[in-house]
């Protein structure tokens, strides 16, 4: 199988990830619940994972790295910690349902959407500059669109938020492990990311990176292994947000994935993924039957395509029958499609990981254009 659906989940993982999970299953229990070797090993895994993440993403320290089930879990904590009914929130026009549904669920939130053109960072900054006035409580912005692969000018948007005293939440689901993420440099209140995409960890893992001075609201209350006599959740991180038994086995795999990313280097990973997607886009460019959404210079690891005269779901099924895994539809981001004008059709999305090759891209082009 040729796998081009890494924007959903990376299927091909470093061997060390599976080995770390298997070793943890055999040898660890739960941190903070005992002073015997298996519990201490679990605590070491959790601390090591937090420490590696804090260094890679430039947080204040390992205690500001909270383990979550996925990016959606992390975004729910971040949004519901900052936003209340009646607040005004600014978002980009490329946000995932993991952002828009929590805002809807809070109720009474006034949402301003910045509908910048695809691959036009200057217009996006201008739109945020107009929208971020004194009435705004928070801004939520994806770093990279999960549908179109366009990188939003998060550094410039973060600077606007800092100058105007507005809390910023960044969804780094499609950038973590590929592009630099700088929590302290951005001055972000929160940055959310999954473990199972660009960090090559197992499904069911994620991270919430908390900016300096944040006091997030727990989504769950329960045992933490700390301050057990009191009936309120601890007021310190990460315990405040990690009620119940943690996914230590997943954290062991995520730790191995983060170490792989750091060893490879972000620039190298981004370059290799972009090379593969560029080969795919170049092979389809100018051919009749395909409308491509691609960035000038080919710097993305995602290529979205609208086939002419064929339903995207039908094309994805045809690719699956030929041994190629892609994703079709709205990709859980209808707002992005409304912004880009593809809400009626959706797109077929090809997304690469560091394990894809240009030879695979060329084979996909051949299959798409055969006959």
List the defining traits of the structure above.
single chain, 371 residues, alpha/beta, Aspartate Aminotransferase, domain 2, Aspartate Aminotransferase, domain 1, 2 domains, seven-stranded mixed beta sheet, four-stranded antiparallel beta sheet, 13 strands
Q: Care to describe what's here?
A:
The chain is an alpha/beta fold. The chain folds into 2 domains: 15-264, Type I PLP-dependent aspartate aminotransferase-like (Major domain) (Aspartate Aminotransferase, domain 2, 3-Layer(aba) Sandwich), CATH 3.40.640; 265-369, Aspartate Aminotransferase, domain 1, CATH 3.90.1150.10. Helix content is 40%, strand content 16%. It contains 12 helices and 13 strands. The chain has helices spanning 15-27, 37-57, 71-82, 97-106, 121-131, 154-164, 183-186, 248-264, 266-284, 312-321, 334-340, 358-369; strands at 2-3, 65-68, 88-92, 110-114, 136-142, 167-171, 190-194, 206-210, 290-293, 302-307, 324-325, 327-329, 347-351. The strands form 3 sheets. It has a 7-stranded mixed sheet with strand order 2-8-7-6-5-3-4, sandwiched between helices. It is globular and about 70 Å long. The mean pLDDT is 97.
Topology:
Layout: E1 2-3, H1 15-27, H2 37-57, E2 65-68, H3 71-82, E3 88-92, H4 97-106, E4 110-114, H5 121-131, E5 136-142, H6 154-164, E6 167-171, H7 183-186, E7 190-194, E8 206-210, H8 248-264, H9 266-284, E9 290-293, E10 302-307, H10 312-321, E11 324-325, E12 327-329, H11 334-340, E13 347-351, H12 358-369
Parallel strand pairs: 1-11, 3-4, 3-5, 5-6, 6-7
Antiparallel strand pairs: 2-8, 7-8, 9-10, 10-13, 12-13
